[in-house]
Amino acid sequence: MLPAPLRLLTIADADAAARLHASGFADAWNPASIAALIASETVLALGAEEAGALIAFALFQSAASDSELLTIATAPAHRGAGHASRLIAAALPVLAAAGNTRLLLDVAEDNAPARHLYARLGFTLDGRRKAYYTAGRSVPVDALLMSRPISG
Ligand SMILES: CC(C)(COP(=O)(O)OP(=O)(O)OC[C@H]1O[C@@H](n2cnc3c(N)ncnc32)[C@H](O)[C@@H]1OP(=O)(O)O)[C@@H](O)C(=O)NCCC(=O)NCCS
């Protein structure tokens, strides 16, 4: 099967993106917050679509020469098929062309799929925030701060 096409998101995608976000995170972002990010000139908003439905999305926010992966989520039924990898890979040249030299993110220490994905994509550990994630957890979990260079 051909890979799901990637496209830029518009604010019309905010509800679908919020549903995807809620499927992946205990502290779900509301559609209005997601719409505001999609509309921001500093944000690159990418999604993957299959049969007319948004099945994965990612938001990248740039400031100075750094970009930050604000969030990324794939619908549970579509995980492990490479959608998140393709979204990040597609973003890199766009972010580079906009003058970014580094992509930053943070990830919960107990998020094995995301840590596997980021390691495979060349992100390395810069530091940690102790007990940063609390939502949906009985015990707080550290945030791992990671980055990778973006080459033009
Ligand atoms: C993290 C997430 C975005 C990955 O999306 P995806 O479309 O499944 O990503 P990909 O298919 O490109 O890659 C996932 C990788 O994790 C691996 N993986 C899946 N479950 C795993 C586990 N329990 N432990 C380790 N690796 C795992 C997959 O095998 C795959 O690696 P591979 O391609 O080398 O085999 C998705 O799991 C998700 O939406 N999670 C909830 C939201 C979230 O945690 N976002 C990241 C916050 S930092």
Characteristics:
single chain; 152 residues; alpha+beta; Aminopeptidase; seven-stranded mixed β-sheet; 4 helices; 7 strands; 38% strand; binds coenzyme A
Structure explained in plain terms:
This protein has four helices and seven strands. The longest helix has 15 residues, at 83-97. It has a single domain (6-149), classed as Aminopeptidase (3-Layer(aba) Sandwich). Helix 1 (14-24) packs across helix 2 (31-39). It has 152 residues and is of the alpha+beta class. It has helices at 14-24, 31-39, 83-97, 112-120; strands at 6-8, 43-50, 53-63, 66-74, 102-108, 124-133, 141-149. The chain has a seven-stranded mixed β-sheet with strand order 1-2-3-4-5-7-6, sandwiched between helices. It is 29% helix and 38% strand. Coenzyme A binds at residues 24-25, 56, 72-74, 79-85, 107, 111-114, 116-117, 120.
Q: In angstroms, what separates the terminal alpha carbons?
A: 30 Å
How many distinct domains? Answer: 1
Radius of gyration: 15 Å
**Low-confidence sequence ranges:** none
CATH superfamily: Gcn5-related N-acetyltransferase (GNAT)
The ordered H/E elements are EHHEEEHEHEE
How would you describe the shape?
A: globular
Spatial order of strands in the largest sheet? 1-2-3-4-5-7-6
Amount of helix: 25-40%
Question: Which structural class do the helices and strands define?
Answer: alpha+beta
CATH topology grouping: Aminopeptidase
Rounded mean pLDDT score: 96
List the total number of helices. Answer: 4
Q: For the report, how would you describe the main beta sheet?
A: 7 strands, mixed
Can you name the CATH architecture? 3-Layer(aba) Sandwich
**Total strand count, please?**
7
Bound molecules: coenzyme A
